[in-house]
Design brief:
Two copies of one chain form a homodimer. Chain A is an alpha+beta fold. Chain A has helices at residues 29-44, 86-97, 111-116; strands at 11-15, 49-53, 65-68, 74-77, 117-121. Chain A has a single domain, classed as Glutaredoxin, CATH 3.40.30. Helix content of chain A is 25%, strand content 17%. Chains A, B: It comes from Methylobacterium haplocladii. Chains A, B: Pfam families: DUF1636.
Chain lengths: 134, 134
């Protein structure tokens, strides 16, 4: 995994309400994903803060996570498999945390992030008063 | 409009790349929305920072905006009309800026925000180390 110096600044939010279509499990898919992420983060990314959140308002694309970090873009991802995607998510966040601005080159992103991206939001501090021409 | 004391802290990001389906205009729908928002914000919300952003990665739901503010939730909205929604967006952000945490009661939100919500992300500072049960 690449430089993880930024991992301790990052937060991984996991929607705990997300329920996968047709899933009859007692625990929501989102709650299972949170557990899997915490279990695997203990080995793969112990510095990372992993938080369960009641709702990220991406209800049509379970499971959903968001990653944020001071000075970096925030990314929201959906369509994530509750039982199989934890390692992929943590690997992707390792790449994210290794960048200055949170933007990982497209081809280096895990396929689950490329296909599942829901939105990205600039870092709050980055005032760009006039980007009309961009 | 409600208490706008928080408007000067908020930033409204507007995707300038968003192109509406079937729209043959030379300027993208997103660029037109940015202009409309800036024009109307001059009267309705002069304290608000309005920034054009090349892409918010919500490409399937043009036009797209995001609103962020220190200590408040960030919201991303899509499906916004480039030519008719500026006043509605600014009214909704006036409500947002009047709250402590950015969460406007559901029934008070503009219909365009209720239908167009793409995602919401907690404020970065709000550490909630263990919300497993939420």
């Amino acid at each position: 995994m690449p430089d993880q110096s930024g991992l301790s600044e990052a937060v991984l939010y996991v929607c705990t309400t997300c329920r996968a279509s047709g899933d009859a499990s007692t625990r929501t898919a989102g709650a299972r994903l949170l557990t899997a992420l915490r279990d695997q983060a203990a080995d793969m990314a112990p510095e990372l803060r992993v938080e369960g959140i009641p709702c990220l308002s991406v209800c049509k694309r379970p499971c959903t996570v968001a990653v944020a970090s001071p000075g970096r873009w925030t990314y929201v991802y959906g369509d994530l498999d509750a039982d199989a995607s934890a390692a992929t998510i943590l690997a992707g966040i390792g790449l994210y945390a290794g960048t200055e601005d949170g933007i990982v080159p497209w081809r280096e992103r895990p396929e689950a992030f490329r296909k599942g991206v829901v939105a990205r939001i600039p870092p709050l501090a980055s005032a760009q008063p006039d980007t009309d021409a961009s």
